[in-house]
Amino acid sequence: MIRSLPNTKVYTGCYKLAIYFYFALMFSPLVIVAVLAFNDSVFTSLPWEGFTLDWFVANGPDRVGFFHDSRNINGVITSFNTAIFVSILTVIVGTLAAFLFEQEEFVGKKYLFFLFIAPLVVPGVILGISILSFSNSLSMFIEGIVGIENSTSSSLHMKILSPGFWLVILGQSTYITPFVTLVVIARLKRFDRTLEEAAYNLGANRFEVIWYITLRFLSPAMIAGGAVAFVLSFDNFNTTLFLVGSNPTMPITLFTQVRDGSTPVVNAISVLIITAVCIVAAINLFLADRKAKKSGR
Amino acid sequence: MNHIDLSVKNIVKKFGDFTAVDNVSFEVEDGDFFSILGPSGCGKTTLLRMIAGFYGQTSGVIEIGGQNMAAVEPNKRPVNLIFQHLALFPMMNVKENVAFGLKRRGEKGKVVYDKVDAMLERVGLPGFGERKIEELSGGQKQRVAIARSLIMKPTVLLLDEPLGALDLKLREHMKVELKKLQAEVGTTFVYITHDQSEAMVMSDYVAVMNEGRFEQIDTPQNLYKAPKSAFVAQFVGDNNKFTGILRLESNGNFIETEDNLKLKINQTVDMGDGERVEMYIRPEATIINPPETETFNSISTVVKAILFDGANSRLLVAIEGGRKELLVSLPQNRQYDNIKVKDTIQVGWDLSSSVCFKETGVKTYEEFE
Amino acid sequence: MKNSSEKNKLKWHFWIFFIPVFLWILLMFILPHADLVRLSFLTSDFVGKAVPTFQNYTNFFTEPIYWLTFVRTAVFSIVVTLIDLAIALPVAFFIAKVIGVRYRGLILILTMLPFWVSGMIRVYGWITMLRESGVVNSFLIKTGIADTPFQMIYNDASMVLCLSYVTILYMIIPIIGVMDSLDDSLIEAAYDLGANKLLIWFKIIIPHCVPGIISGSIVVFMYAMGSYLTPALVGGKNSLWFTQQIYNQFIHYFNWNQGAAFGMLLLVLSSLIIIITLKLSKQKLNEVVAK
User: Do C2 and B56 touch (CB under 8 A)?
Assistant: First the structure.
């Protein structure tokens, strides 16, 4: 029970133990994956054969480490590029939508908002196939207009509408935009609208008010929303699965490797990602701590 | 030089069926400190927002500096507003806040910041330019808000109860500061408040507003001395109220109260014999042991309580044999130190210091019964 | 509350917000799903021409493998949701009410940290632990608890474990949210009036947490229903997941019409389950999603 109530030692002890166990369970798969990345063995399993960095740096012929494994490198780069574009796109659309749904009034707003956030509860697989089939129908429609001979793989609509980098970005964004919007709306709700009035009163027009006042107020939420979008995009599997072309993202390449038999290179990639996540978490914690100290002053 | 800066003619604002501002007209001369005083919900904020342009009026005309404002957007009006909660931009420092309006006007470069520094100096915040808004105290924020508006050199500066959020001591201080600042810069101020003391201390003219209408526009002195309506009498300052029936008799006019008191009045009234009226008399005009002359009312009362409050000390007395209670100011000159609870004393007032109105039934929260 | 000139002036920025957002919804959500519906009612005849049909839907009900897979998927998703709920309640309570403010930030980060790592890697972690040559088996043999390694993945249990593992955060976070808003003095008052711990949980804490529980349950359920990666990697040969049926139709058999129909069925049936849950618990989707 809560700290202010008397608790028996046994109860408190058991409760704490259960929580420790929970966290142990949460972290053990990650720790084991990370440790095995340094095992000097071609199998991702025990026994421990000694420490090695081969799975990061080796360059053939028996072992190819991550840094020389073009397939995995490409996967990470593709995921990275995808995540950046998705972040930019979703922050733009999400902020526009936040303004529309929070600051404007119009008939049917409730229903439009419902449609807008519906992708949150639509399975990613369905978003994937719906985008896939629609883009396919659309490109056939465009082919019908411009003629099949003009629809080479290098023409713009084919680039965007056939499975590949751009379609993955669009597909992921349908699912991620509502998240970003909710983050931005949460902050916009806390916005004191007399600040806008004050800016009008000092001679600003609507554009200047949004630019100098509202957007500057929203910027932390836009950055946070972008970060959320980045993580969601980097991690996305279900929607991406149906939309990838010849250059799959990292989760997809990892999936095929694990399914068809993996080498510790997968562990090496995991180590890099876990490390990156820990660094971000540490920075986050540090900033939160500094902020708490500042406000406590 | 006394031209009209702000002229409001027959302004009406309706929200659906509700009339928030009901046919209000007034004029403010250049350099005046004009206050609109009224209880919350009386329509004063709506009126101010119409002048600032945030609401359009249902009918009527607003002219600022002789120019009709009907088609002028809020961001183009020559007025600036100090918001109730100041609305300083938390994402900018002091300097950027003050410079905001000038930049929107297209002014650029060093000139802007020279003006900002000069303005900060004027409001007593030299060197505060780089401070963040959240680092400022309540009084300093107040000054930044004033600086941010004054730097625009508005024809009229509107103030929406800006002192409301401050604690009592600071509020008393800022009242004097504001008054001084206004006299110094000579800008026309239109100030709205529900605090009569703020309005009285600072203003050249005060309009008392109630239920969307102006009850009286006058100097603070006149509002206090000669309220033109029962509402004003009750809202401005404290008053003891008697209700009764008017008797016009050959030897003078009387009010017959419920406690069968006959109180003389020497005010000329345009009401007939037998009408129900209200009479107001201020505690500070009520004196203990009044001279027994024709120009005084004198009644016998029992002391119920002594309300000691320094210079503002009062006696709560009840009319002997009746239920009506009165407040009587108790001068702290040791003359009345012997008065104790349950004593019977005479209290009274000069006939010229009471005012009489037809009964309206208006009650303010300050009414004492 | 605005006069007419203001109303006209407000128009242009309304359109700046409205047009892109409306186009977004139309092009990214409405039209793709309409197209999916259209596809699901088409089939190719023997010359390859598309003709309208209900065949894709009747297949679902006449072929037991299809609807049985769906029922399996739904039932296991509910099991996963319940397991998550049972674990999330005490964990969220610990974070929201037991741990001191000092460590709260740290423990929140620790809670979320595993979930920032790609879901793919998290499942891979369990595979390394549980498979025949996995770490758990090595440990069991070394300590003498078991003498031969045995396969712990490729079955329903491992699939439910992994699904619970990858979804638990979606249950914990909304429950922490509602627990934060529970005033400690309510618990103190109940205790003061003689309630025991169990009673406090069931009469005070859980009723207060219902919105968070519903919100978490919907997200977990939908996530489980729609997941592909976990069942594909740790589910057994007999633990087919409904998303795999969709994938097979689209990618292996190239029968988009059948796949589209399956997609629509997954969407409609899972939405139905959610709508019934919402109706039964008297919650609204907008409020739940906003949590």
Answer: yes
C65 phi and psi, to 5 degrees?
Answer: -55, -35
| CA-to-CA separations, A66 to A62, A251, A265, B49, in angstroms, rounded | 13, 15, 6, 66
Given CB atoms, is B56 within the 8 Å cutoff of chain C?
yes
Tell me phi and psi for residue B315, to 5 degrees.
Answer: -110, 140
ω into A47 cis (within 30 of 0): yes
pLDDT at B369 over 50: no
Tokens 């000329």 correspond to B268
Is residue A136 classed as helix, strand or coil in its secondary structure? helix
Shortest CA distance to A259 belongs to which of C24, C11, C123? C123
List pLDDT tens digits, range C263-273: 999 888 888 88
Taking residues B21-46, what's their average pLDDT?
Answer: 90
State the amino acid at position A297 in one-letter form: R
- Residue tagged 């005479």 (tokens): B346
Chain C 9-48, residues with CB within 8 Å of chain B CB atoms: 9
| C23-38 confidence digits (pLDDT tens) | 999 999 999 999 999 9
Q: What's the confidence (pLDDT) of residue B367? A: 44
N-term to C-term CA, chain B = 48
Structure tokens at A11: 């109860």
- Count the alpha carbons within 13 Å of B297 in the hemisphere toward its beta carbon: 24
Q: How far apart are CA A162 and CA A168, in angstroms?
A: 10
Q: Where are the alpha helices (DSSP H) in B151-275?
A: 168-185, 196-202, 220-225, 230-235
* Per-residue pLDDT band at C172 (split at 50, 70, 90): very high
* C115 and A274 Cβ atoms separated by less than 8 Å: no
Please report residues of B whose CB lies closer than 8 A to that of C4. 56
Residues of A with Cβ-Cβ distance to C25 under 8 angstroms? 112, 115-116
DSSP A59: B
The predicted model gives B91-119 an average pLDDT of: 90
Helices (H), B227-306: 230-235
CB A121 within 8 A of CB C31: no
**C86: contact with A, CB 8 A cutoff:** no
State which H helix or E strand residue C260 sits in.
helix C256-281
CA angle B271, B275, B279 (to 5 degrees): 80
pLDDT in tens, A42-64: 777 777 777 878 788 877 777 77
In this prediction the ipTM stands at 0.84
Task: Please count the residue pairs, one from chain A and one from chain B, whose beta carbons lie less than 8 angstroms apart.
Answer: 62
pLDDT score of A110 more than 80: yes
The top-scoring range by mean pLDDT among A292-296, C115-119, C147-151 is C115-119
Nearest 10 degrees: Cα torsion C220, C226, C231, C233: -110
* Cβ–Cβ gap B55/C3 under 8 Å: yes
* Span C192-208, average pLDDT: 80
- The single-letter DSSP state of residue A3 is T
- What is the Cα–Cα distance from A201 to B73, expressed in whole angstroms? 9
